[in-house]
Amino acid sequence: MKTFYRFLVTLGLLLVGFIAALALLVHIYLKPEKIRNLTISKAETLLGRKVELQKIEVGLFKGILLKGLTIKESDGQTDFVRLKGLRVKFRLLPLLRKKVVITKAEIDSPYLRVVKDRKGVFNWETLKILKKEDTRRENGESAASSRGKAFGKAVLTLLIPNLEVRNGKLLFKDETGDLPEMEIPFEVKASLSPEGLSARADFELFKEPFRLVVKVKDYLSAPELEVNLSGQTLDLNPFLKGSGFEKRQVSQAGTSRSSSLSSTIFIPVAKARVEITLTKIIYRKLALLNSRLIATFRDGKLTSDFQGEVAGGKVRDHLEADLRTRVPSWKVRKTGVGIEVAEILSGLHPDLPGKINGQISYEGEFAGAGLSLEEVKRTLAGQGGFEVKPLELSGIPATEVLSRLLNLPELKIILFSYGRGKFEVKDQRLFLKAELVGPMLSASLPSGTLDFEGYLDMPFDLVFSPGLSKRLTQRLPFARHFLNDKGEVELTVLVKGPYRKPRVILRSRPLERRLKETIEEKLKGLLGL
Fold first, then answer.
1. Is pLDDT at 474 greater than 50 in this prediction?
2. What's the structural domain count of the chain?
3. 8-state DSSP, 311
4. Count helices and strands in the chain by DSSP H and E runs
5. What is the C-alpha separation between 65 and 85, in angstroms, rounded?
6. Domain membership flag for residue 488
7. pTM, two decimal places
8. In the record, which residues are listed under signal peptide (predicted)?
9. With contact defined as beta carbons under 8 Å apart, do 54 and 13 qualify?
10. CB neighbours of 329 closer than 8 A, spacing ≥ 6?
């Protein structure tokens, strides 16, 4: 019994001595002065910004606690990054080998202020460490390789199996007015090891919750990235306020071709997979439901598949892009089934005059090059087909003009049983061939164009029903010259100009045929044939 008692006493003394030795080692190896110097001096050297630290606490079991850590803006006054507290816990045994193996890191109430100034420069772009990365790239050394060398030469091997960020807040401000001001609360749980990084972030955007899950393998050599973003409702309309989005598109369209060609894409990963799942996306007054995007990147090639529901129908897109060239090339296949045309038009262009009702289905394949709006417009080419049934046109500017010219109020609302056709995109224009069949009126479009500025050039060949032809000839007797052999009025209606204020020009095919026959007979008589 005495032996066992002595064993317990000896074990207790050894444990106390070991803890005391570790505590002494912690205070020697991790002195608050050294930590302050490491935190402030190193951070100021790397960032080129003023760094403040209110208090440091060091303990054997509680680890290291930094209170009131602040990184200032370039002016040295405004807070760029602010942490209420940063606690780091570590394993004790590795300290004997002069290694700090972190078991947990906790960040309490971080605040990050991101500002884009009137010149379009972000406040983080002036950080000194980013300028060093640019210098390395100019010298042909990748950022990943330089970080890997620094990691390998480090005296302390830092592992963070458990990182937790609580009560975070990101403040974004755009002084150019392109983007809205945003205050984004967030929380993060992450793990970092030599094998990889995994992280989960929960955040709110305009008070809507989202979750972002990120995994990275081999981040020091050939990073492999996996990203999953999910959420309920993403409202894009705040990004359109003040026409910021439209201004950017116009600005891009006005850039020179040489400037768009000079842009290159830098993707710092070897492989990537991105999946985005959103219950609802709101753009203007249009809602895209149950959308899902899966994109993969490997060997410089990007592939993505998208599906969703809009305006009572379903849409699918498949995209393939080659990002290895100076100007990326891409091709996309687009499919839509059972989409309500009226809902699409009222959602995207609520001020558009007239109404088009019907369900459209389409399929097309497109190709192009570049990423700027100018390059896409210049290189876009493709073809496909469509069908709308039934189709109802009411209050359309062109049909309103036609109704007045022919004194036919019946043409203010036109119903077609179906409309189908083919389209081709090239030379910044849309070429259309279509046929429309209805009980009152049928129409064919042998070849029409619509340019990217919205200018129409559409020659429609119209055939009126016998009943409508009779009413027309009664109201306009000269319309009898427009009758064909079946007693149907035939007209070619040329619609030119913008959709809202088109010019409508009438031609009579039967009358032209008769005039041609009469002229030919006269000529034959004169020539004695």
1. yes
2. 1
3. T
4. 12, 24
5. 7
6. yes
7. 0.81
8. none
9. no
10. 321, 322, 367, 368, 369
